[in-house]
C-alpha cells in the first residue's frame, strides 16, 4: 500500500556558484519521489520542507513510518516534533548500515547517472530547474523501475524512451519555460 513507508536522505549537487543540497522523500511502495526540497544550506528546514511537501501532496494516515539515516537534520528536535504533529513514526538506521536506506540511495545514483554526471550547472537556479524537471517530468512519470517492470508492463509499451539529460538541456535552453511545447510533450502521463 502507498504511503505506509517513506524513506529520505540528502545529496549534494555542485554548481559553479557553490553547493546545492537536495533532500528527497521516496514512497517505498510506488518508488515515487513524494516530496523534495532544495537549499543552499544543510539546516533542518531542508528536511522539514521536503516532509511538508510530501504531507501536503499525499495526506497520509497516522502511523506512516518515515525512515532515514542518523544525520543531524533527521535527529533534530524540530524534525522529531514535526513528525509527531503529523502522526508519523520516525525510524532511523543503525550506525554504518548502508543497506537500510538503499532505495533512496538508488534514486540518488539514478539522478547522478542520468543527469548530474552529464550536465555542469552554472548557477544553483539552473540546477534547481533541471532537478525539478528530472523528478517531476521524468522520474515520477516515465522512468521504469526494475522492481515494477512485471507489474507495470503496459507502461513500458506506452512510454517512449528518451534521454533525460537531453530533455533537461532542452528545458534549460528554454530557460526553465515549462510552458514550452517540449516540456508539455514530456509531462503527459
Order of helices and strands: EEEHEHEHHHHH
Measured between the Cα atoms of the first and last residue, the distance is 21 Å
Spatial order of strands in the largest sheet: 3-2-1-4-5
**Averaged pLDDT, please?**
81
Strand content: 15-25%
Rg (CA only): 17 Å
Supply the number of structural domains.
1
- SS element count, helices: 7
Unreliable runs = 148-168, 175-189
What does the model show?
This protein has 189 residues and is an alpha/beta fold. The chain has a single domain, classed as Ribonuclease H-like superfamily/Ribonuclease H (Nucleotidyltransferase, domain 5, 2-Layer Sandwich). It is 41% helix and 19% strand. It has seven helices and five strands, in the order E-E-E-H-E-H-E-H-H-H-H-H. The protein has a five-stranded mixed beta sheet with strand order 3-2-1-4-5, sandwiched between helices. Helix 1 (45-58) runs parallel beside helix 2. The protein is globular, with a radius of gyration of 17 Å. Mean pLDDT is 81; it is low at 148-168 and 175-189.
